[in-house]
Amino acid sequence: MIDGPFFVLVVAGILGTGLVAGVFYGFSAFVMRGLAALPPAQGVAAMNAINVAAVRPAFMAVFAGSAALSALIAVVTFVVWPDEGRVELLLGSALYLAGSFGLTIVANVPRNDRLARLIPGAPAAAEYWPVYVREWTLWNHVRTVAAAAAALVYISALT
């Protein structure tokens, strides 16, 4: 049974990965659909504004903090090597670190950077906008599932 400070660490990991999954789910469920319904110039401008707002401490503490917690959970699991839950703890950490945090870096951020270089009313922005929405949202679905799965797998390690 996982207990003491390690238990608290895993519970914090559950909360962090679950919160990130919720944010990502909101984008997949309605934010991107709403933005996609706007004229391209407005959608590009709105998404660029959202991307700037996202890298503020309130979200980044949870997003990057969950990555740090996931890495710490994996390290502590290797050191302690508990009789129960070790596979779940390592899997939960891998899901979040690769499927949510890592995927953000390799799939979503490059698309955000490309979108930020476009002038919202320009023809290039109008041409890229539907591609951006489709691709960014697809990868966001994957990030959502990975973060939610990490939370669920962490929970299963405690039961």
From TrEMBL:
InterPro entries tied to this protein: Anthrone_oxy
Keyword vocabulary terms for this entry: Membrane, Transmembrane, Transmembrane helix
Record protein name field: DUF1772 domain-containing protein
Membrane-crossing residue ranges in chain numbering: 6-27, 58-81, 87-109
Pfam family, one: Anthrone_oxy
